[in-house]
Amino acid sequence: MHISRVVFKISDIVNHPLRNYIRYDGIRSVKNIPYGTGKFRRMDFYYSTKAAEAAPDGKLPVLLNVHGGGFVCGGKKYRSGIAKLFASKGYFVVNVDYTLAPKGAFPTGGNDVIMAWNALELFDERYPLDLERVIITGDSAGGYWAAMAVAAAFSDDYRLELGLDETPSRKPIALLTFCAPFNLIKCTEHPTPMGISEDIGDCLFGNAENAAKLPPKAIDITLNVNSDWCPVGMMAAANDMFAGSQHKDMVKKLDEFSVPHSEYVAAEKGDGHCTHLYPFKKGSSKTIEAAEQFLNGVLSNKTRSV
């Protein structure tokens, strides 16, 4: 039994009621929609019927949301609260499950996200989702897989090197990450209690030797940024025991290629890795507000590098 799976499973159970207790009226949910074979490849839809009726074309911008869980645990149901929150604000939220490590070794999770993204074409006529306005988002491990999908969308070389599926022809209009690592080697080598990060690396790659055989560009998303990228919003934390300050490396690359971006670093008392998921925390509301500002800028075509 991998220690990382034990720790994250306990975290899921303990934190589930703390993260998902708020109820939102008028939110429709459609759950466990398959987008591929196997028990992991399922997704849930959340949207406001009122918002859809009020939209000029009856279509809502899509938030394709990828859950965290240290790459080894978690699930879409543990992000129902954040999904309903953004659905209440007028987004068509797609909560995605993906194949967890070690069964889903690198880069399976990222390819599953691409599979789910492609599958949305099947629902274009049945649900009020606007596939011209897809924003890919995720927290922690999900933020990494989300970034991988975006990198694949804007670089055929990267996609082919990893053997990833083709992405939809309609590019994402933004990437929004919450406490995401962008370089997996830095993440797995980051000191954590009980060697959790190292164990996550073993789950993803088998061992450190296997990871070392991969070219740096395969593992470090920042090395695949180019001038074609969509705007990027990064919600990070000053005290992050898993991702550290990796958003700073991404900022440098985005600046280098003049990609519009915005970043917010949560630093309220108690803020840390993914505290935006706890509605009762002061820092959570500030992080969500910063994310909303970024998204509003993207949708109004007013995003600027800050």
UniProtKB/TrEMBL annotation:
It holds the Pfam family BD-FAE. Residues 56-214 form the BD-FAE-like domain. InterPro entries: AB_hydrolase_fold, BD-FAE-like_dom, GDXG_lipolytic_enzyme. One of its GO terms (molecular function) is hydrolase activity. Keywords: Hydrolase. PANTHER family: AB HYDROLASE SUPERFAMILY PROTEIN C4A8.06C. This is Alpha/beta hydrolase.
